[in-house]
Design goal:
Layout (H helix, E strand, L loop, with lengths): L8 E6 L2 H17 L4 E6 L1 H5 L3 E5 L3 H4 L3 H19 L4 E7 L2 H13 L3 E5 L4 H4 L4 H7 L2 E4 L4 H6 L5 E3 L11 H8 L8 E5 L4 H21 L4 E6 L2 H9 L8 E5 L2 H7 L2 E5 L3 H7 L4 E6 L2 H10 L7 H6 L6 E5 L3 H12 L2 H17 L5 H15 L4 H10 L15
Parallel strand pairs: 1-2, 1-4, 2-3, 4-5, 5-6, 6-7, 8-9, 8-11, 9-10, 11-12, 12-13
Helix pairs in contact: 1-18, 9-12, 10-16, 13-17, 18-19
Length: 409
């Protein structure tokens, strides 16, 4: 029998490092507004620091590094633990953060127990799985979208959905931090930023590709230098382990991303949220994501969106050269980078296009808006598009994002 209490219990689950980061400001805002509510999390250290009771770390790179059957079994065990914990607790709202393959099955089981479900980060059905729309709609009471065009796409398919902003673009740059992060970065030029991803499998797959591409750039520009920004010390070690010897012009550092972006003239970036960090500073880039030839062929059948890199998806056209997914060598990647470096007009156009993409996100605070949506659902037991529009309007923000579209159905 469920515990009878007036104290509202919110469950938050995240299964990736990025999910831990996305959830933390929501938890902090909710704790500030509703200090007596209990927030329990399966997630990461950022969620715990924001005020959640962390039951298990499920958002570390170690968990994400698992693959195939091993990962599926690990996720299944985590689900069983959560469900056993919830047998004697009345969970009012489940805030499922990204990772639809891990979160949706759990949400479906919790929904049967009367729990309401909000998704922070809408599943990318517009890219690969519109056929799953009916199932997602049955499970989710509302989708909190991080990309501007998603609100219209989901509402046209009878979802309760709202664009709440993106964490990367919701706050202005701290110029003091940027200046501090630039200190010690190498002189020379052109200055190339190498961003190998934040997950172990991404680093293993892409490290050699981007370094070899840089070497091809350096064969044309002898004074070229590169900085690799790793997200953690362990990722920095893993990156170095991919090489018997790194080229002397390639420097590896941990953290300090914003300063490194400011320092650079062009980035070779593994596809992901970091492309929005680059867009925020209007920095030209080439996007990559190396995988097997089989995955490239399969992607042509499964992935319906014409673009894979976030700036291109939001712009609705290719403003950034992308090799995502990609099974080839460094030659094409280097050629795309050299074309940008060798043409001032191309660089200026790329910067202008990226600046427009960044500006299209507006100044919404996703942590605050998502917390208000969770609170509304917990207090009333339901949520509608009108309610979400009202939440955004109460912050003095425009409610309609319909002018922001993408060029796929």
């Amino acid at each position: 029998m469920a515990e009878q209490t007036d104290r509202r219990l919110i469950l938050v689950t995240a299964f990736e490092p990025s999910g831990d980061l996305h959830a933390a400001p929501v938890i902090a805002a909710l704790k500030a507004r509703c200090p007596d509510w209990e927030i329990v999390a399966w997630g990461g250290a950022h969620m715990e620091a924001a005020g959640a009771t962390l039951m298990q770390n499920t958002a570390s790179d170690g968990v994400m590094g698992l693959a195939g059957i091993t990962r599926a079994n690990e996720i299944r065990k985590i689900h069983q633990e959560i469900l056993r914990w919830g047998e004697h607790r009345k969970v009012i709202v489940h805030l499922a953060v990204d990772s639809p393959s891990a979160n949706l099955p759990l949400s479906a089981k919790l929904k049967l127990r009367g729990t309401r479900v909000l998704n922070l980060v809408a599943p990318q059905l517009w890219a690969w799985g519109e056929w799953r729309a009916n199932r997602v709609r049955r499970i989710s009471d509302g989708l909190l979208c991080l990309l501007p065009f998603e609100e219209r796409w989901f509402r046209e398919r009878q979802f309760v959905a709202k664009y709440v902003g993106h964490p990367v673009l919701s706050q202005p740059l701290d110029l003091d931090v940027v200046k501090q992060d630039r200190e010690g970065l190498p002189p020379g030029g052109p200055r190339i930023l190498l961003l190998p991803g934040s997950r172990t499998n991404e680093i293993r797959a892409n490290a050699k590709l981007i370094v070899r591409a840089f070497e091809l750039i350096q064969s044309r520009h002898r004074s070229a230098v590169a900085t690799v920004v790793a997200t953690t010390e362990s990722n920095a070690r893993l990156f170095r382990e991919q090489f018997e010897r790194l080229p002397s012009a390639v420097h590896v550092k941990v953290g300090g991303l914003e300063g490194a972006i400011d320092w650079s003239e062009l980035a070779l970036a593994v596809s992901g949220t970091v492309s929005l960090d680059l867009a925020r500073q209007a920095k030209p880039m080439v996007g990559v994501y190396r995988t097997s030839l089989f995955s490239v062929i399969l992607g042509k059948f499964v992935l319906k969106a014409p673009y894979r890199l976030l700036p291109n998806i939001v712009a609705g056209r290719e403003i950034v050269p992308e090799f995502v997914p990609y099974s080839g060598g460094p030659e094409k990647v280097a050629a795309a980078a050299l074309e940008i470096l060798g043409d001032g007009r191309k660089r200026a156009q790329a910067s202008d296009d990226l600046r427009r993409v960044a500006n299209s996100f507006g100044d919404r605070d996703p942590g605050l808006l998502a917390s208000l949506a969770v609170e509304h659902l917990a207090r009333t037991g339901s949520i509608t598009n009108a309610a979400l529009d009202s939440i955004v309007a109460s912050k003095g923000l425009p409610g309609d994002q319909s002018e922001l579209t993408v060029t796929h159905s």
